[in-house]
Amino acid sequence: MGEAERESVKRTIAGLAVLTSSHEEGKDYLDLFLPLIGQSILSSHPPIVSITDLQHQMSETFGMQIPQNALKLILGRAERRGYVKRGAASVYRPDYEVLKQLDFAQRYQDIIRQQNAAIEKLINFVSSGFNIKLTKSEAEAALLAYIQKHDLEMLDCFLSAGIPAVIKHELSKQFEFIVSSFIADCHRNDPECFKYIDIIVKGHFLSHTL
After folding, report:
1. If 0-12 CB within 10 Å is exposed, 13-18 middle and 19+ buried, where does residue 37 land?
2. Residue 50 bridge partners (DSSP)
3. d(Cα 210, Cα 29) in Å, to the nearest integer?
4. What span, in angstroms and rounded, lies between the C-alpha atoms of 168 and 141?
5. What does the pLDDT profile of the chain (210 residues) look like in tens digits?
6. Phi–psi pair at 94, nearest 5 degrees
């Protein structure tokens, strides 16, 4: 996995956690995406942005495929907050001074610290329990892929406070078994890490609400 791809996986996981964090603050579904939209614009820093541009930026930055109709509604909300100003031909001019007030950086760094801690625990779990050395990028990719594949059963587990099932697969799917074993171990022994995984799973669902 190249550096660009690794950073993309890292940002995707963090972006899902940001959605859950915003949701727990009582924000509606459009407001959930404002911090991510703002950060996408700040990262690329274009003089103007179109809905198509923003759709591409959200995909590149956070791995989220947001429909253009939904982005139009979110940009309308962003305009009312003063983050952007609508121009001709459905393009928007960002107000970077206002966007900086979103204070996304602090929230993002807090989430990254939690994420790094969870990934380090996964790496150590795999090393001690399975004698396999995972890189940080491999661990991040394995966790994200597992969540994307098993989101429904994981959400049901979190809501019912049950123990995640350890899914047994062929050796070719050993990472799937390993990650499910790790999550089950977190449920039994590490509530803080288990809570962070819960946050990512819920964020994954929220990313598909639009």
Report:
1. buried
2. 91
3. 8
4. 19
5. 667 777 888 888 899 899 888 888 888 888 989 999 999 999 899 999 999 999 999 988 888 888 999 999 999 999 999 999 998 878 999 999 999 888 787 888 899 999 999 999 999 999 999 999 999 988 998 898 888 877 656 555 544 555 444 443 333 368 888 999 999 999 999 999 999 998 998 888 888 776
6. -70, 145
- Predicted model pTM: 0.80
Which own/partner contact pairs does 70-78 have at CB distance under 8 Å and 24+ positions apart? 70/210, 71/37, 73/30, 74/30, 74/33, 74/34, 74/37, 74/210, 75/37, 75/51, 77/30, 77/31, 77/34, 78/34, 78/37, 78/38
Residue 88: phi and psi, rounded to 5, are -75, 160
- CB contact at 8 A, 93 and 105: no
Is residue 59 a contact partner of residue 207, using CB atoms and an 8 Å limit? no
* Residues ≥6 apart with Cβ < 8 Å to 102: 34, 35, 38, 39, 83
- State residue 50 phi and psi, 5-degree precision: -105, 170
